[in-house]
Each structure stands twice: as structure tokens, then as C-alpha cells.
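Q: Is it fine to ask for two folds in a single conversation?
A: Yes, each is treated on its own. Send the first.
Q: Here.
A: Result:
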Amino acid sequence: MLHSARSRERSRHSPRTALLVPALLTALLGPMLPAGTAFAATAPVTAPVAASATVGLPENPAGASTAVSATVTGAATVCGPEERTVGTLGPAVLGRGKVIMTVTGAALRDTDRVRLYTQDYRAESTTVSVSPDRRSMRVALDLTGAPPGNLHASVITHYGWEYQRSGVTVVAALRATAVPVVSVVPVVSGSSVVGGKVTASAGVWSPAGETYAYQWRANGAAIAGATASSYVVPASVLGKKLTVTVTAHRTGHLSGTATSAGLTVAKGAAPKATKAPVLTGTVKVGRTLTLNRGTWTPAPTSYAYQWYANGRAVAGATRGTFTLTKAQRGTKITVRVTAHRTGGLSGVAWTRATGAVAG
């Protein structure tokens, strides 16, 4: 009875039972041995020590004048086209809480797992994903109750071997040391305005975040799609409190969040006429005058008109055209144009007065 062995990788291995199958031995060695030879597997052994087998020869083998012996070597390695290996495990510094770690190697499977432990504490991972080439995998661990300081680390493979790796250090989760600050462009009495652009700083964090995410909110409710550091304020949030929540991300740490102070959204600036409105047409009873409302910025969403005769409003004259009547004979005509913009203040401009209306 002979044994074969495989030296250990510099790690400690968990027990793995292995047996040499008698039927396989019969198929391989039977033709070379006397009739009546029997094969039996010995008691299970633990990997990486190889399995062994007993070859029982008949007491009086036919035609045999000398002793016969057989040697069977069974290597306790996992068969397959690619060598199973475990490489790196990281990161080396983890925050208390739910964390993600990465394992590299070859022929990794979703049943492989990471174990972090001390004499009095142990946490084991669940698999998040395995790369298509099976050379890296991401695993999740819950270190909420982990003691701060150093933990031993090992990777336990799907075939039962445990590879010890460099330990990890557990530190406190991310926390904010300064809340994000929101600056408003333009600033109107310290308030954000419809149509204005607001910008958030990330704030100051300890330890520093590697990346930051932003979520703008109106009266505490998340605004769909408002996830950049800058935000152009729409009319839909007029009168509401605008805040931004910043989330700091760092590998191996819980994400931290902080929310800015609220700013009440005010109406935006009124449109201004960059080209004044004018009247065209013959200023005579029975003739029709037409209003050109001019050019405005920012662009209004609607306009309103009121015609005047010698400064007195003409009842019902609120359209873009007006037909002069005898009531306006001898008067001078003007029009007030009001430009409205949703969420903003309204702008006003006047036409120049016409000459006196002829009869």
C-alpha cells in the first residue's frame, strides 16, 4: 500500500475527503494482474494528502511462481483544464458595516467564499459576481459587528481548500465632518430662483470620499433626474425648499450622506424688452392698428396687451390689433405689453404714442 502527497500552498487547508474508486483501479490495472485480484479503497484521507488503495492478490494465483505487487498513486488535486489558484484579496482597509471585497485567481466559482476572523469573531462572504473568465470575483460581507483593528483573512475554495491571505484592518465607517454647501448663481436675496443655476460642493469628509453622488430635493422629495452637482431650477419647484444630498463613496467603507441647508425657490427675473414694441397702421377713425410686441429676453411664455387712448385704458381692447372708432378721435394711442414667464416675474414695456387720431 503506497501513498502520494502534494506539498501545501503556504496556507492551511480545510479537510477534504478523497477516495480511489475500486472500479477505476480494476479497469486500469486488472489486465496486468492475476485473475482474482481485488481492489479496495482505504479509509478516507484528507487533502492535500493523496488517497491510497489496497490491492489484494489471490492466495494461490494461477501460474504465478513469484510474488506480485502493484503500486497505485492517486494525487489529491482537482482535475480540470486550468489550475485552480487564489491570488489577491482586497482591499486591505475596510469600514465597519456592509462591504465589498475582490478576490483574484483562476477557475474561481460562486461557491468560493472569504472568511474574516479573530479568535472571537468570524464573518463569511456571499458572492456578488464572478467575472466571465473566472479570474476575479466580488463578494459581500457584513462587518457591522466586527471589532476595530486587524482581522485574519482566508479564501475557502469550492473544493474545500482554505488559502490564508494577508489580514485586513477594520476602521470606522465614513462620516461627514462638514455638510455640503450650496451656492446659487445668480443669488437673489439669498434665495434660489426659477431659471437660476445652483451648484453644490461635496463638503469635507473624513476619510475623504473617492467619488461623490448628488440628489437634489424639493421639500425633501427627490427630484427625478436631478443627480448632477449643478441644477437649473425649474418652475415646478417654485416656493419649495431646495436641498441637495451628497453621498460619499470609498472602497471598503459604508457610504456617508449629508444634506445641505434648504433654500426657498423664488420667482425668476422678469423678461426685458431688448427691442421695444411698436404700432403700425394709419391713425384714423375706422382704420386698424397692429401691434408688434418687440423682442424679449429671457423668452416669455405668454403676453398680455392693453390699448390706451390719451393714457386711459380702452375697455375690451386687449388683442394684438385695434380698430379706431370715433371715441378715439383726437386722442393719442399707446399699448402696454406685459410679458409673462412661468415661474418668473412679469416684464412690462410700452409703445410710443401715435399722433392724434384723425377723423
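Q: Second one now.
A: Result:
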Amino acid sequence: MTWHLPLVADGEPGAELTAGQDGATIRRTILPGGVRVLTEQMPGQRSATVGAWVGVGSRDETDGHFGSTHFLEHLLFKGTTRRTAMDIAEAFDAVGGEANAATGKEHTCYYARVLDTDLPMAIDVISDMVTSARLDADELETERGVILEELAMNDDDPGDVAHEEFSAAVLGKHPLGRPIGGTPDTIRDVPREAVLEHYRWHYRPETLVVTAAGGVDHETLVDQVTEALTAGGWSLDEPVAPRARRSDVEDLDGVPTEGVALTIRRTVEQANIVIGSTGLSATDDRRFALSVLNAALGGGMSSRLFQEIREKRGLAYTTYSFASGHGGVGTFGLYAGCAPAKVDQVTDLLVSELERLAADGITGAELDRSIGQLSGGLVLGLEDSGSRMSRLGKAELVYGELLSVAESLERIKAVTADDVRALAEDLAARPRSVVRVGPFGD
């Protein structure tokens, strides 16, 4: 059954659903302060992954705050009112655990994987980081240098540059067109006061989602989260509704109406090409058809791009298609890395394969193979607790529903060749941008 995630509690202490065929139990509780807690108990697991999701990403930054989201991802590990940065690091190293964080365009997640017996410690430490980060001025300046080095490292990777510039070209002045990590200028310029203001506004009970999967007990974990957040100074007594999910209404404000052609010169041996357009939003009903289209066009060794550009012609080592969905808009693109002298030929092949798919559709064999690839990948991807923890967080923050594995497989298998052709036709007709990064002359 499809589990639709409401914005307020329905009178039950937790919603419950048995998902898949492995006996895993998924439950959800909304605390009075608006904190949402979701767990997936996996029988026989001795480890667990817990994540604290905050519904804020780079698209939510405003003038004067650009780069604050990524800054906070770093600074929360630099100490709290109760712990130093070394205390945080030692807590996980001492038990063989792993802790990390990830900033996205629409959310930020702080997560840890530990033995089930060490889960209380992980919850306490991550909750302490979320509620009680010091954001020390000296640490901020130190971390400013670290982030600038991270951005410089990314700028040295021509593939990263091509994808970042592609997103900016397709989405333009839309907030999603900004780089997740900020730019060197925004990181240099953003003051501590702006980062602190960003933290106080977005890191609140009504924006927090805690998800855990593996060897977890739901009621015990809810108690641990409540205790840890309360110890951090958050009030969970007043009935507050969680912050609403992002609108799924189409949002093209600031998105260019024409394609962009951009060439970036780098002294490298290989040229990187990214071609594409706007895609589908995260909740678009056609997202399952897009997954099948992506698999057939550039999702594996049997895909059209791989076979035509690499296997038949030997023009590239890496080529693929990709899609990214967000609230109101998404992107869809094609990538290849090739010799600079072959750029025009490879560009033509990338475009022609998309247009051929739009004109002729896919064969029955391609449809079956793509569905099989996606189905196998879905099931295999849920073999570890980290994937399941992430699935819960995205269901709550992005989709508003949690499909069982069986339902997800049914939706994939329901995609038809006509669905794929119609979507390919739509995507091929959209304004197309081309970004090339390499050792090009004038």
C-alpha cells in the first residue's frame, strides 16, 4: 500500500506499515514541537544509520546569506556548547562508526552509521550539533579557508565544472541555478551574523526530520530523540505543525526561455560536454517513465549512448544521461568526455540519439531491459541501512508518500514504450543548452 505522509499527526502515536518482503516495519511519529521521526526496523541488523534532515538547501538562501547552508554543514562539526570538534570526532571513532553530512539544493542531512548498541550516542551527538552549534567566530574563519579549498578542488575537475555550469545555464536566475557550495566570492563575503541568522531561522523543530533504519526500535528512538533535543534547549511542548513541504507547482521563474551555448577553457587533455534542458520536477507523475528513458538512453553499458559513442565508435570512455528533480522544476542532460578534436562529432551523436528516441521510441527489448535494470537496482540499493534511512528522509521531505518496494516495482513495470517516446519528444523539444569545458582556442 502507498503510505501518504500527512503534515499533522492523525491521533495515533505513530503510523505503521510493513514494507517489502523482509519483514521490515516502518513507523512515523510527529512530536508536539513539529519534529518528525521515521524509522525502519530491519530484523537481524546489528547496525543502524540515523540521519537528521533539515529542510533547507542552497535554493533557500537569500541575498546576503549565499553560501550559508554549506557553511553550516561544516560548522556543525566544529563544536557545540557541550562538545569540542575533537569530542565529536572521537565519539564516532571510538566505536568504529562513521559520521558525515551532505548539503543539497533543497535539504541538508547529518548522518551516522553505528552499531545498534551505539545508536543512543549517535542520536545524542547529532542532536547536540543540530540544536547547539557554537558557530565560533575563529572556527568560522578557519572553515572559510577550508571551504574555499574545497571549491578550488572542484574547480580543478573539468567534469564538475561542466555539470555546475550546465545547471546554471539551464536554470539561469532561478534559485536552483546557484551552486550548492556557494562561490568563492559568496564564501569570502558572507559574515558570521548572516550564517548565524540562517541557522536560527532554519534549524528549528518544525523543519527537522529524524530518520533511522537498521537495528532500531521506534518507541525507544522517539524517546531518545525527544530527550536529546530537549537537552539541546529545544521546546517540544507546544503543538506546532511541521513546516509544509515545498510546492510541486511548476516554477520556471528565472529559467531562460532559450538555450545557452557556453565554452569554458581549461588546460586539460580531454573535453567535457554536457547537453540538456529543463526536466521534470521531483513529484511529476512521469518520473518513472523518465527513469526508464534514462536507463535506455544512457544508464548502463547496453544503453544507446554507451553503445553508439563508446562501443561502436570508440570516441569516449565515459558517456551517460542523467536527470535531477526538484520542487517545481528539474534538469535532464547528456554527458560525454572525449578528445577535443572530436567534440563536434560527439555533440552531434548525443543530440541525435535523444532525437531518435523522440522520433522512434524504444524497442520492446530495450523497455524490458530498462525495467529489469531499474527493478534490480531498486532492490539491491535497499540492502544497507543507509539507503533505507535516506529513502525515509526523501519520502517525508520531497514526495509526501512512501511506496513499498512492491509498489515502486509496479510503477516501474507500468511504464510503456509510448510513455517513454512521448516524454522523449517533450524533452527533445525544450530549449537546449550546451556546455563544453576543455583546451579550446578562440
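Q: Anything structural to flag on that second result?
A: Two points. Residues 261-438 form a domain with the Cytochrome Bc1 Complex; Chain A, domain 1 fold (CATH 3.30.830.10). The chain has two domains: 10-231, 261-438.
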